[in-house]
Design goal:
7% helix; AttH-like fold; 23 strands
């Protein structure tokens, strides 16, 4: 990794005064033309990312899970730092392979006409209508997947904007992805299918400067997709907590923080990545008549990002099994959880 890339990445959080070139007004309804534009890289956007996850299985029923994300940090003067982060889990063997990389802007090719297409050395994403092509390639593993959705991108916060004090965070999602494609682990390849999620966020939060944490849980169900998420910082209590439920037709119901309860227990010991991360979660949303319990499928899902061997972010991210009651009927399903602080 080049020295200037690391210095700009770390320094941008404390010193950058860059703001969005475009942000959605709170009082306007989100239009389809807006969502198409917001899926593309936003010029002079201080932080943005495209994120995918999935629960997959092969023809024999063997289970896998993955998440992969592409981040772009705009820095001064007129440079971008890119980071790719991918993890692939073989749930039958309780193993996870992870990689992350930093790149300069010249190492990525961007085209927006197809809405958008971004290609880098280890990752590539492209969108056509309601489908995503995803490629992530490493020496030890790889994935080539097509994710199709019956819905267009939806606003996971009202009007796609979360308000964190004076700052704003944009948030769109496609939570009804049906994946199919190929996974490679070492020299072996397998064809898989399953369900998953696409998330798109953009913001001007100085994550490295004020130590914001981003925690979320995504839950799949035959009748709905649910996301529970929050943003916090070290100087205040919770900045933003919200839950959104998306139906198969793309209709969204929003639940503010006071309308649900979430509790985490059974944390990892402090020696695991230097933090405690709950491995069991209980969620109750009375307005949905939903009670659900979630348990991590892979305990060793801690990732520590480093620059010059200095850790600047540690978090837990991985798949979970879910079971509970919805409208009085028992169900079992999948969840995906990310914790930077509980």
């Amino acid at each position: 990794m080049r020295c200037w890339q690391v210095l700009l990445l770390l320094g941008a959080g404390a010193g950058s005064c860059v703001h969005h070139s475009w942000f959605h007004a709170d009082r306007r309804a989100l239009r389809q033309t807006d969502t198409a534009r917001l899926l593309q890289p936003l010029a002079r956007n201080s932080l943005e990312w495209w994120y995918f996850n999935g629960h997959l299985h092969d023809s024999s029923g063997r289970e896998y899970a993955f998440h992969t994300a592409l981040f772009r940090r705009y820095t001064f003067p007129f440079r971008s730092i890119w980071m790719s982060n991918t993890a692939l889990a073989d749930l039958a063997n309780d193993t996870v392979i992870r990689h992350y990389h930093f790149y300069g802007s010249r190492e990525f090719r961007i085209a927006t006409k197809a809405g958008p297409e971004i290609e880098g050395p280890t990752i590539g994403i492209s969108r056509q209508s309601r489908a995503w092509q995803l490629r992530a390639q490493e020496a030890s593993f790889g994935l080539e997947l097509l994710g199709e959705s019956g819905t267009a991108p939806v606003a996971m916060a009202p009007n796609a904007v979360m308000h964190c004090g004076k700052q704003q965070v944009g948030y769109l999602s496609m939570p009804w992805l049906d994946w199919r494609g190929k996974l490679r682990m070492g020299d072996s390849s397998v064809y898989v299918s399953g369900i998953g999620w696409f998330d798109r966020q953009w913001s001007a939060l100085k994550l490295t400067g004020r130590r914001y944490s981003w925690n979320w849980i995504s839950l799949g169900h035959d009748s709905f997709r649910l996301m529970v998420f929050g943003i916090r910082d070290d100087r205040k209590d919770t900045n933003y907590l919200h839950a959104a439920v998306v139906g198969p037709d793309g209709a969204v119901r929003h639940y503010p923080a006071e309308s649900w309860m979430l509790h985490g227990s059974e944390p990892l010991d402090k020696g695991t990545g230097g933090k405690e991360f709950p491995q069991i979660w209980q969620l109750w949303i009375p307005g949905m008549d939903l009670k659900v319990c979630m348990k991590a499928r892979v305990a060793d899902a801690v990732m520590t990002l480093r620059a010059f061997r200095w850790p600047f972010m540690t978090y837990w991210e991985g798949p979970a099994e879910a079971w509970g009651l919805y409208r009085g009927e028992p169900f079992r399903s999948h969840a995906y959880i990310e914790l930077t602080r509980h």
